[in-house]
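Problem: given the chain below (181 residues), write out its structure.
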Amino acid sequence: MFKTTIKTRDGREITVREPRKNDLNEQWIFIKRQIKDETADGLLTTKPPSLEEEKRYLEKRLRQIKNKKTVYLLLERNGKVVGSALIERKFGRQEHLADVGMAIDKDYRRQGLGIKLMDIILDLARERMKDLEIVYLECFSYNKPAIKLYKKIGFKKVATIPDAGKNKGKLYNKYVMMYYL
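Solution.
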């Protein structure tokens, strides 16, 4: 089971590790915080999952980790989940692809965690997911900090889907960005 420690720019120690079954409540609390947080611009969902839905989600992800179909990491500080990232492999004719997503609590953003977390999860995906060639993500055009971060890592914008997202009553484009491993 993967586990390491990283530091924020202001010196806080953060544990980066794979999830466990007993993370259910903390993970559920984290996702609910992200949905309530109006600055968490990248989330696709606006409705918090029930505890049962989150339990099924976590159980599915743990199976996928075991079968090397997913790399999933949590950021933890003092027993509290403050971030997560996930790379999930596609199947069949898209088996060379995986999609990636990341979320970090408001109080931990702009502290260098995003780039560190993405570097770690991309390295783990290279190591664990044989023949994986491309990681991609979708990002709304209004999420400028995320776009800047992904470009810094090496993601390239390859497509724009017009009016694919709606935030506060306004339509926004969605970008598809790819990273070649």
